[in-house]
Amino acid sequence: MRIESVDVLVCSPGRAFCTVRIATDDGLVGYGDGTLNGRELAVASYVADHVAPTLVGADASRINDIWQYCYRGAYWRRGPVTMSAISAIDQALWDLNAKALGVPVHRLLGGRARDFITAYPHCTGHTVEAALTDAAARLAEGYRALRVQAQVPGVPTAYGVARGDEEYEPASSVLPDVEEWDTGAYLDFLPELIRATRDELGYGFELLHDGHHRLSPSQAGWMGRRLEPYRMFWLEDPTPEEDQRAFATVRSLTSCPIAVGEVWNSVHDCQHAITERLIDYIRIPVTHGGGLTHLRQILALADVYGIRSGLQGASDISPIGQAANFALDWTIPNFGMQEYMGYPEDTWRVFTPHYRLEGGVITLDGTPGLGVEFDEEAAARYPYEPRSLPVNRLRDGGMYDW
Ligand code: CS2
Ligand code: MG
């Protein structure tokens, strides 16, 4: 099981994905997801130009050693590009090793700790009414947890809300779109949206909302207090994530549960937030968090502090990365919730999943490996199309967090 090749395949079936393939001299192949939305080629270059040549000839069964070689062996550590690159390699190795043994990856992680994985979708609309219609339709499909977002009155384009009638996709233009942000309008609006959701649809489901890094700690505390009567499952990213200590202020002001982590990449990004119990859910996806090998460690630390998982599952995590999330969701003791945003139709012409999402729950069928097939010929029919995430400016033109 010597590594013969490490290749990167970047394609755009409906949206861009960066996939790493590792092949061994005995004919085994494993795939991993290294998609970093809008920065796909940076990860591709990191893997292809800097790491792939160093792994040829390595024993593919030594996942732990290869992880340490890629992380500890590099002087320049951490960060989204590096950790997504390491993740893609790590996922490909878990996939390959599980295929070699003829078992799903979760069996290598000790087996299932639950019968199904609870998933939440995105419910959204240009008005409160439209968002609630969407939410009601998802409840009718069987979902028992919903993320609800809607257009903020007075803010022309909002995070989580599509521009026209098409599905929402944040990276939708070649150069970054400039969006406009108004914190006051959001502070006025969100408690109304959440109140209307509970008034209209009741309390028989878990309710989530993503603030997308846009409040100060005191504003977040103010907001959390206003949401307390509506029993939120979580308020996500109330403040920018890089300031771990800011969550102490949010915590001191509200009992609303807080979910954070989709832009963290390493245990060192969240060590303080975890050990000081500043958050309730940790959202680092396998794809951006150094792979199964590293995220497992982060989730084990979180468990010691009573923090549960809420792994990011936006459309920019490929179906392979999602399956890697599920391998952990199945096996950890501290599972909380799994995001499942969904994919454009064309994505399914390249990726064939063996997981099922029905009635708001995810199940797997026992296929060896991560359980997602990647069709390289089909991928070649969808050449890479670069897309950027938007940027945010305030009304006065000053830059703001997106
Ligand atoms: C989001 C993402 O999934 C989420 O909660 O915050 O949609 C995020 O905006 C994208 O992953 C950015 O690429
Ligand atoms: Mg988010």
UniProtKB/TrEMBL annotation:
<dbReference type="InterPro" id="IPR018110">
    <property type="entry name" value="Mandel_Rmase/mucon_lact_enz_CS"/>
</dbReference>
<dbReference type="InterPro" id="IPR029065">
    <property type="entry name" value="Enolase_C-like"/>
</dbReference>
<dbReference type="Pfam" id="PF13378">
    <property type="entry name" value="MR_MLE_C"/>
</dbReference>
<dbReference type="GO" id="GO:0000287">
    <property type="term" value="F:magnesium ion binding"/>
</dbReference>
<dbReference type="InterPro" id="IPR013341">
    <property type="entry name" value="Mandelate_racemase_N_dom"/>
</dbReference>
<dbReference type="InterPro" id="IPR029017">
    <property type="entry name" value="Enolase-like_N"/>
</dbReference>
<dbReference type="GO" id="GO:0008927">
    <property type="term" value="F:mannonate dehydratase activity"/>
</dbReference>
<dbReference type="InterPro" id="IPR013342">
    <property type="entry name" value="Mandelate_racemase_C"/>
</dbReference>
<feature type="domain" description="Mandelate racemase/muconate lactonizing enzyme C-terminal">
    <location>
        <begin position="128"/>
        <end position="257"/>
    </location>
</feature>
<dbReference type="InterPro" id="IPR034593">
    <property type="entry name" value="DgoD-like"/>
</dbReference>
<dbReference type="Pfam" id="PF02746">
    <property type="entry name" value="MR_MLE_N"/>
</dbReference>
<dbReference type="GO" id="GO:0016052">
    <property type="term" value="P:carbohydrate catabolic process"/>
</dbReference>
<protein>
    <submittedName>
        <fullName>Starvation-sensing protein RspA</fullName>
    </submittedName>
</protein>
<dbReference type="GO" id="GO:0009063">
    <property type="term" value="P:amino acid catabolic process"/>
</dbReference>
<dbReference type="InterPro" id="IPR036849">
    <property type="entry name" value="Enolase-like_C_sf"/>
</dbReference>
